[in-house]
């Protein structure tokens, strides 16, 4: 009880100093808690949707075999309408209804603007069923009852200013058709962003499936007293022998949908938790520094307690109790802040098009428990070393000296361990650059990053002594005596400076590494485009939709073009003469002109010949592994089609990232073995302009595809800009998340300086007494902060560039062979670190300048 009172007294006595450490805990816990609340809320939203949009039993087309992808034909798989009659006659069926649904559509308004979802959520077209009535309510007009009518969801109508009577055009692989809005339906549950358009059943069948005798699903409602499991069993018996249908209960359908969306949610969840972990790691340095300085300042107090009979264990317990109090305060506030962060994330996602309602805000028992446990455990672990160090001080040494004597032997051991770890990490990074394959290089790269990071943290005091002196010679010496005093203050306790700089080092090392990797990816892809792509224009959908035939026809009719090339991704199993089987081979069916649109080096044979009758090409690595050479015949089993025997006319180089390892054949050859209804659509198309007509062709292509806004025409300049923008957006998102760790690191600098000012109160008073002005004192503290920040930045950026260079060597094995270091970004971050140091010093410098000289001198 006495220890608790003492700890509570000390905690409250230093509440200002504990506040910044508590903020570090708060931010880290808030990120973890916010992530859990956000993902739990998304799960709740989708659970509600899936629960009301699934019938008691659903019958649909059978899924493709595991690992096999269905061809992108632009039409959904369907089943014959006769199945509806068979299911409806099953005992225990209250009602059976045929459903039509397709996501391979684009809906545009009268101005040819896409009114579909823009957040990555699907645009779903289908017929209105009783199942839809469970999740949506017609709030304006009426549901479609005949051809030429369409109903839209209220969210889509609001976003795109649609009203009853407006005309919408729906683009499908079977053709375009228009309809007037007859009604608007509002979701009864939260709609996370999908755009819904519904038609009468016959129109939906005819336009989306190409036949009025087919459905995409049969929605079955159980009679009263009949369980879903029993109904599924009876339906399966009625459809026995077909083997072509998938039958699911409501729970099974909901679970399958949750599994499909689960991978997307997991990516968000684990990415955010990863950044929260980085923030926790940075926060550990702040907490260690805080308690180290507090223990050092209370050395005399600890000596008196030991002299009065307190044991070493009691001293440890006292410090750790303060850490528990700090962890509890920071964690409780962090959990509350995490709920607020989740709400902010929901608003941000809403602005991006994914609507999440705060009515579904989900805070489970797991969130506060995980937040509290993490916050308290991390705080206690971080405070354990200072607590142990304080407990080891003998009573006489403590009473004789107000500071904690340095342990020279411990410093030498620490330095040796740090150097060994750094050397091991450096060797691992080097080994990753010498590996022959990405699989072999990845473990070395991971080991190198972890070992060098830990090594640099451990040898931080040694690095501080060297780097701070070098920086001071450039930055501080110009400020005369004040600069030299700032340098000595930064070097007075290298361990403290090293720990403070290490917190900033971690975040900036990751920034530098990702900048090098991102810049190298852009430079490599740009270089590949310049060297490999001969086509002037590239046409594709940014959402991965195949190019519908009517858009293809419009593109082919555009003037000023020399040729247009079709490109289809096929799914096939390839068997070499020696028996080597390659499933899901990267086979592309293209027009012969693709040989000039993509300039590939050939190791054997001729790529032009690969587009001949019953011919193909293979990649160099495959040829070597399967012992295949030009002239051999491969057995190719096309998914959804027949088996062909194709002659290898060329072996192509696998260098580069564009179509690396891809096998080519002619579209005409593929059509001999794949039925028309199973032939994939064109995922991408290429076009070349007539000589000197590039500008006219570019304008003509854009004009011809204006009615099809889902597709984008890009010349090579546009394509390079798109690559830069995509990678830049991803990096900006990562930098934004890393900003949390950098904020925590800045708090560490503030806390270190604030506690350092308190520690040097008497010294500051003496300097003021002999003539140091307030302005000079504040400048000295600001310069000390700047050099500590620049130390962390210099070490972090250097370490990060080393990581990025090693990572680029690994990427070079996959064709990204250009190393590009973004020097403007690196220089900008380094200069910004100086401003960070100035910002962090504002409060400590202001506080030091306000000290009363006589009171400061009289301080013990």
Characterize the main sheet.
10 strands, mixed
How many distinct domains? Answer: 5
The portion of residues forming beta strands comes to 15-25%
Average pLDDT score: 84
* Discrete helix count: 27
Q: What is the overall silhouette?
A: globular
Topology:
Elements: H1 2-13, H2 15-53, E1 57-61, E2 79-80, H3 82-88, E3 93-99, E4 101-102, E5 106-108, E6 123-127, H4 130-135, E7 136-141, E8 149-153, H5 154-159, E9 167-172, E10 175-187, E11 195-199, H6 201-209, E12 214-215, E13 217-222, H7 228-238, E14 245-249, H8 250-297, H9 299-307, H10 312-351, H11 366-391, H12 395-400, H13 408-434, H14 438-458, H15 460-475, H16 480-492, H17 494-532, E15 537-541, H18 549-556, E16 561-575, E17 581-590, H19 594-597, E18 602-605, E19 615-619, H20 620-626, E20 633-638, E21 643-652, E22 663-666, H21 667-673, E23 684-689, H22 694-704, E24 711-715, H23 716-759, H24 761-769, H25 774-812, H26 823-849, H27 853-858
Parallel strand pairs: 6-11, 8-10, 17-22, 19-21
Antiparallel strand pairs: 1-13, 1-14, 2-12, 3-13, 4-6, 5-9, 7-10, 8-11, 9-10, 15-23, 15-24, 16-17, 16-20, 16-23, 18-21, 20-21
Helix pairs in contact: 1-10, 2-8, 2-10, 2-11, 2-23, 8-11, 8-17, 8-23, 10-11, 13-14, 13-25, 14-25, 15-16, 15-17, 15-25, 16-25, 17-23, 17-25, 23-26, 25-26
GO molecular function, one term: transmembrane transporter activity
Protein name: ABC transporter permease
Subcellular location: Cell membrane
């Amino acid at each position: 009880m006495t220890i608790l009172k003492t700890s509570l007294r000390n905690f409250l006595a230093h509440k200002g100093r504990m506040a910044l450490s508590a903020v570090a805990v708060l931010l880290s816990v808030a990120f973890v808690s916010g992530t859990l609340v956000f993902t739990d809320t998304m799960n709740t939203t989708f659970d509600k949707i899936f629960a009301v949009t699934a019938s008691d039993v659903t019958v649909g087309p059978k899924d493709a075999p595991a690992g096999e992808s269905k061809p992108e034909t632009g039409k959904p798989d369907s089943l014959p309408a006769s199945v509806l009659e068979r299911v409806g006659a099953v005992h225990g069926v209250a009602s059976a209804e045929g459903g039509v649904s397709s996501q391979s559509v684009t809906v545009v308004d009268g101005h040819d603007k896409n009114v579909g979802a823009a957040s990555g959520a699907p645009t779903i077209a289908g017929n209105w069923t009783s199942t839809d009535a469970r999740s949506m309510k017609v709030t304006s007009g009426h549901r479609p009852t005949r051809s030429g009518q369409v109903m839209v969801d209220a969210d889509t109508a609001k976003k795109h200013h649609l009203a009853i009577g407006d005309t919408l055009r729906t683009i499908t692989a079977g053709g375009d058709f228009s309809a007037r809005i007859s009604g608007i339906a509002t979701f009864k549950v939260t709609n996370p962003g999908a755009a819904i358009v519904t038609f009468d059943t016959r129109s939906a069948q005819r336009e989306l499936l190409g036949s009025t005798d087919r459905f995409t699903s049969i929605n079955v409602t159980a009679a009263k007293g009949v369980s879903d499991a029993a109904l599924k069993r009876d339906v399966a018996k009625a459809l026995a022998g077909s083997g072509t249908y998938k039958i699911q209960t409501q729970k099974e359908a909901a679970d399958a949908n949750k599994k499909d969306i689960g991978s997307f949610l997991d990516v968000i969840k684990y990415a955010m938790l990863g950044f929260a972990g980085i923030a926790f790691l940075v926060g550990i340095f702040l907490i260690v520094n805080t308690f180290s300085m507090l223990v050092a300042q209370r050395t005399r107090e600890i000596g008196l307690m030991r002299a009065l009979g307190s044991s070493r264990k009691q001293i440890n317990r006292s410090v750790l109790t303060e850490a528990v109090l700090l962890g509890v305060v920071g964690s409780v506030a962090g959990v509350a802040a995490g709920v607020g962060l989740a709400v902010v994330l929901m608003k941000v996602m809403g602005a991006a098009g994914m609507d999440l309602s705060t009515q579904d805000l989900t805070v489970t028992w797991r969130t506060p428990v995980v937040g509290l446990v993490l916050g308290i455990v991390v705080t206690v672990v971080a405070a354990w070393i200072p607590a142990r160090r304080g407990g080891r001080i003998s009573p006489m040494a403590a009473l004789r000296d107000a500071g904690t004597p340095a342990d020279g032997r411990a410093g030498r051991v620490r330095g040796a361990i740090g150097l060994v770890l750094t050397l091991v990490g450096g060797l691992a990074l080097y080994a990753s650059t010498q590996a022959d394959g990405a699989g072999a290089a990845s473990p070395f790269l991971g080991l190198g990053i972890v070992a060098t990071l830990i090594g640099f943290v451990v040898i931080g005091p040694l690095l501080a002594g060297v780097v701070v002196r070098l920086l001071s010679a450039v930055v501080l010496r110009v400020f005369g005596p004040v600069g030299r005093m700032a340098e000595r203050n930064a070097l007075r306790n290298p361990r403290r400076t090293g720990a403070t700089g290490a917190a900033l080092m971690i975040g900036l090392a990751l920034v530098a590494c990702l900048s090098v990797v991102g810049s190298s990816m852009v430079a490599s892809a740009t270089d590949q485009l310049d060297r490999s792509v001969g086509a002037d224009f590239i046409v594709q959908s940014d959402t991965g939709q195949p190019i519908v035939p009517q858009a293809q026809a419009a593109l082919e009719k555009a003037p000023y073009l020399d040729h247009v090339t079709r490109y289809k991704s096929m799914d096939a199993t390839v068997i070499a003469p020696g028996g080597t089987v390659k499933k899901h081979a990267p086979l592309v069916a293209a027009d012969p002109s693709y040989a000039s649109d993509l300039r590939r080096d050939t190791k054997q044979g001729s790529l032009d010949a690969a587009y001949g009758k019953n011919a193909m090409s293979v990649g160099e690595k495959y040829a070597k592994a399967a012992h295949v050479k030009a002239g051999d015949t491969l057995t190719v089993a096309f998914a959804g089609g027949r088996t062909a025997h194709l002659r290898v006319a060329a072996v192509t180089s696998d260098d580069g990232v564009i179509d690396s390892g891809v096998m080519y054949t002619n579209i005409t050859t593929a059509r001999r073995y794949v039925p028309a209804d199973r032939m994939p659509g064109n995922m991408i198309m290429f076009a070349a302009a007539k000589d000197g007509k590039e500008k006219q062709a570019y304008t003509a292509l854009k004009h011809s595809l204006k009615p099809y806004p889902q597709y984008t025409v890009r010349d090579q300049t546009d394509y390079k800009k798109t690559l830069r923008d995509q990678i830049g957006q991803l990096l900006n998102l990562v930098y934004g998340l890393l900003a949390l760790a950098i904020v925590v690191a800045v708090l560490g600098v503030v806390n270190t300086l604030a506690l350092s000012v308190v520690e040097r109160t008497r010294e500051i008073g003496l300097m003021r007494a002999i003539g140091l002005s307030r302005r000079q004192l504040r400048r000295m503290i600001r310069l000390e902060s700047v050099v500590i920040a620049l130390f962390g930045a210099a070490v972090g950026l250097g370490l990060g560039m080393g990581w990025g260079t090693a990572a680029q060597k690994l990427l070079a094995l996959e064709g990204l062979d250009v190393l590009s270091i973004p020097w403007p970004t690196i220089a900008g971050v380094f200069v910004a670190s100086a401003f960070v140091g100035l910002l962090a010093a504002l409060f400590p410098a202001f506080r030091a300048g306000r000290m009363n000289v006589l009171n400061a001198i009289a301080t013990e």
